[in-house]
Design brief:
Radius of gyration of chain A: 16 Å
Largest interface: A-B, 6 and 6 residues
Order of helices and strands of chain A: HHEEHHEEH
Largest sheet of chain A: 4 strands, antiparallel
Oligomer: homodimer
CATH topology of chain A: Arc Repressor Mutant, subunit A
Number of domains of chain A: 1
Number of strands of chain A: 4
CATH class of chain A: Mainly Alpha
Shape of chain A: globular
DNA sequence: GGTTCTAGAACC
DNA sequence: GGTTCTAGAACC
């Protein structure tokens, strides 16, 4: 278990995040029902994963963690197409989307990389983004509508297996 | 007490903040030992003053609260001239400085105003800042050195009277 | 005027 | 590559 913790610490941000989303059992961080976005409970996440006494990330600051998400291209999901878990009863839960950060898709994970000031190393990501954006979002909206009809509290995507 | 709460809600940010710094008894927010900066315990402050069930500010988000501080010209105090309370034993305590936000100086409070994109309404503040900056900081460093020698835990400036 | 999301820049 | 502080911009 101690060794496990050391492995986590040494990983890069996207890999570390993917691992944590899959292993967390408390709802601090989890996949949305579709498995294509991440649901983050700021309050729980701070307590469980940003505790300075047990450092997993180098910061204990939720703001710095959000900055990392943005630097890696995650975007907040707002407005009508949020996961139904993000409602007024769960004010601390926020949803983040990255085209290439999805449950069961470790094959895409290499495309999640840090945005740099100048030219990005994630060339492939840039190229494919515009082509995928349109249809994906459409599909997402339809499935979200269905979800809203049948949603039960705490329904969220359960990963089938851990690939790391 | 309920009425009191309504009054707080209707105040502008600097006045509201000044009031809270003076009335808070828990250490969530308080004056530094000198009374010229504000010590903010993110964790306690979130619980006590950003609770969505008892809204004082319109946000329950500590990040938005910090954005307000910055918009009004508060700056984080970093490096060696921090108040001794801001140490590794108090990881949630952060210190903020505004030239015109000080204990017992309500006469300066009108100069604490929102930075706008273009021209600021706080013309007087702009003019006096450069003249005051040098000597004030020097004095501050000396007194901080003394404080470091004699510092006792939880020592902080106690306001003499509430002027609102 | 207040809130939110994201990014710039400097630093480690 | 990660962290921190601050600001831009859009929105309410």
């Amino acid at each position: 278990m101690f060794e496990e913790h050391c492995v986590l610490q040494s990983m890069r941000f996207p890999q570390k995040l993917w691992r944590i989303v899959n292993e967390c059992q408390t709802g601090a961080i989890r996949w949305s029902a579709n498995g294509d976005t991440v649901l983050l409970d700021y309050k729980k996440f701070q307590t469980e994963y940003l505790d300075a006494r047990r450092p997993i990330f180098k910061t204990s600051n939720i703001t710095s963690f959000i900055r990392q998400l943005n630097l890696y291209g995650f975007r907040k999901v707002t407005s009508h197409n949020r996961d139904p878990v993000c409602n007024s009863y769960n004010p601390h839960v926020h949803e983040f989307l990255h085209e290439n950060f999805r449950a069961d898709r470790t094959d895409l994970l290499f495309k999640v990389c840090r945005k740099t000031g100048g030219k990005s190393k994630c060339l492939q990501q840039e190229i494919t983004r515009s082509a995928e954006e349109g249809p994906r979002l459409q599909t997402n909206c339809v499935s979200r509508l269905k979800l809203c009809q049948v949603h039960l509290p705490n329904t969220s995507y359960k990963p089938k297996e851990f690939l790391f």
